[in-house]
Amino acid sequence: MTRIFSGIKPSGHLTLGNYLGALRQWVQADQHRADALFCVVDLHALTVDHDPARVRRLSRQTASLFLAAGLDPELCTLFVQSHVHEHTRLSYLLECTATDGEMRRMIQYKEKAARERAGGGSVRLSLLTYPVLMAADILAYGADEVPVGDDQAQHVELTRDLAERFNQRYGATFVVPRAVLPSVAARVMDLQDPTSKMGKSHAETSGIVYLLDEADVVRKKIMRAVTDSGSEVAYDPEAQPGVANLLEILAGCTGRKPLDLAAEYSTRGSGYGALKKDTAEAVVELLRPIRERHAQLCADPGQVDDVLRAGAERARGLARPTVDAAYRAIGLLPPV
Ligand code: AMP
Ligand code: TRP
Question: Catalytic site residue 220?
C-alpha cells in the first residue's frame, strides 16, 4: 500500500493556503487511498524567533484543526513530531549525507535568512539545516508520496537526492519519495499582495484568510482583495495576479477549473465584483463546518490528546526499524 507523509508547522494560525494547498488533499483523497501519516512538525517552528507558550498553543490548535478539517484517526495516523525521537535521530545521519552548499541553495532558506538579517537579527543554524530534518521526517517512514504546496517542492527534491545518495553509499535503506502537488491552488497568494505567498507567519494579516476567521472577517478580507487594473475577468497569473488568485481560490473551493470560471465571469460581464462576492461566500461555506468542529474539539481536549498519543505510538513503531537500519548501514556499532 502506498505510504504518504506530510506535515504542517505550528508557526502561526493555519491559513486558507494551508487548507487548499495541503489539507484538502489529505482529507478528501490521501487518507482514503493510502497509509497516510500527518504530523504537526513542531521542531520546525523553532527555526526562527519563537515564543514557547505560543508554539505549545499552536501545536494543539493545529492538531485540532487536522481533526476539524476531516482527518479521521480511524483512517490515518496523526501525531506531533517531537513525540517521536526517530526524526531527530535520523536527521543527524542525513546531516552527514548532505553538503553545506546544497543547504545554502534552498530558496526558502535564502529568503528567510535575508529577512532575519534585514531585521537586524541573527539566523539560527536550524534554519539552514531545516530541510534535512524535513527529509528525515519523510524518509523515516518510507513514504512514497509527499502531498505539499508548491513552496515545498524543492525540499522534497532534496529529500530524494539525500535518499539516493545514502542508498548508493551505504546500501538500499530508504524509499525515494516524490512530491504530489495539487492541480489548483498549489500556491495561494496574499490577498493584499498577490505576488507573494499567503503565509501564516506574516506580520501583515489583512491579506490572509485564517481557517478560524469569523465569516464576516473572511468576507471583508476577500471583498478588499487587491485586483488588477481593468475589469475584465481573465485567468492570467502573470498580468492579473490578483484576479488569478481569486479564481484559484474559487476553483479550489468548488472543484472547478480556474480557466472555466474565468470564461463564465467574462461572459457575464459582471466585472470583479461578482467574482469577489462568490469567492467570499464559497470560502465562508468551506470554513463554516471546520470552525464548528474545532469549537467542539476545544471543549474536549482529552479527545485530541488521545488521538495524538495513539498516533505517536504507531509512528514510533513504523519509524524505528528504518532508522535503526540506517544507523547500522552508516557504520555505527549497534548497542551492546
Ligand atoms: P507551512 O505553513 O509552511 O507549515 O506549510 C504546510 C503546508 O501547507 C505545506 O504543504 C505548504 O506547501 C502548504 N502551504 C502553505 N502555504 C500555502 C499557500 N499559500 N498556498 C498553497 N499551499 C500552502
Ligand atoms: N517544511 C514544511 C513547510 O514548511 C513542513 C514540513 C516539515 C513537511 N516536514 C515535512 C511537509 C515533511 C511535508 C513532509 O511547509
Answer: no
**Which ligand is closest to the CA of 9, given by its number?**
1
Q: Which of 200, 220, 276, 277 is catalytic?
A: 200
Choice from 8, 13, 37 to test ligand 1 binding pocket (greatest atom count within 8 A of CB): 8
- 200 annotated active-site: yes
Contact 62, 14 (CB under 8 A): yes
What pLDDT does residue 209 have?
98
**Stretch 228-243: mean pLDDT, rounded?**
90
Can you read off the three cell numbers belonging to residue 236?
Answer: 492570467
Residue 73 reports pLDDT greater than 90: yes
Ligand 1 in reach of 177 Cβ (< 6 A): no
pTM of the model as a whole:
0.96
d(CA 103, CA 8): 21
- C-alpha torsion 142→14→250→194, nearest 10: -100
- The residue whose C-alpha atom lies closest to atom 6 belonging to ligand 1 is 8
Percent of the chain exceeding pLDDT 70 equals: 100
Is 149 close to ligand 1, i.e. is its CB under 6 Å away? yes
Q: Which residue, 298, 300, 292, is CA-closest to 215? A: 292
Query: Is the pLDDT score of 179 beyond 80?
Result: yes
What domains, with CATH codes, occur in the chain? 3-181+301-330 (3.40.50.620), 215-295 (1.10.240.10)
Which three cell numbers mark 30?
Answer: 490521501
Protein residue with its CA nearest to atom 13 in ligand 2: 6
The verdict on the CB of residue 132 being under 6 Å from ligand 2 is no
pLDDT in tens, 121-178: 899 999 999 999 999 999 999 999 999 999 999 999 999 999 999 999 999 999 999 9
